[in-house]
Design goal:
The protein is globular and about 55 Å long. The longest helix is centred in the last third of the chain and has 22 residues, at 96-117. It is mainly alpha-helical and 139 residues long. The protein contains six helices and two strands; from the N terminus they run ααααββαα. The model has no long low-confidence stretch (mean pLDDT 95). Strands 1-2 form a two-stranded antiparallel ribbon. The chain has helices spanning 8-28, 34-45, 51-58, 62-74, 96-117, 122-138, and strands at residues 78-83, 86-94. Helix 2 crosses helix 5 (96-117) and helix 3 packs across helix 4 (62-74).
Length: 139
């Protein structure tokens, strides 16, 4: 009998869902989803990015990111502007309301990451991050 629950693909997917649910719960306190937080946090470092570039950095496809940006736009957290170098493309910017929200979610995201590391020694964290990177490189 195949023990699917021991397969890495199953275990990683199950763990990812658990982590996502917990992070989404924390994001919901700010009226956003985890994915929306990733877009907002990305824009802090890359304000004025295209949907395509945001999608590449947060590792989602462009149509999914377009939907997220549409919702953020409705909440007045981002605004869109025509890209002067490519009129077919839009640049996405945080609004002042978006920046205010970002200032609140950065500490929440940092705390979430800190909480994830509790109980691990620094060398264990380093080891885990090294192997996460190696797994990511495979895909």
């Amino acid at each position: 009998m195949y023990k699917f629950a021991e397969a890495w693909c199953f275990r990683l997917a199950a763990l990812s869902r658990k982590i996502s649910r917990k992070y989404n719960t924390q994001c919901s306190e700010y009226g956003i989803t985890a994915t929306q937080s990733f877009v907002i946090l990305d824009l802090l470092d890359h304000d004025g990015s295209s949907v395509k570039d945001i999608a590449a950095r947060i590792q989602l496809d462009s149509p999914a990111v377009t939907g997220v940006i549409d919702r953020l736009y409705k909440e007045e957290l981002v605004h869109r502007a025509e890209d002067p170098s490519d009129r077919r493309s839009l640049q996405i910017f945080l609004t002042s309301k978006g920046r205010t929200l970002a200032a609140k979610i950065v500490p929440m995201a940092d705390d979430f990451n800190r909480q994830m590391k509790i109980g691990f020694k620094p060398d264990e964290v380093s080891f885990f991050e090294k192997y996460l990177s190696r797994i990511e490189q495979k895909f």
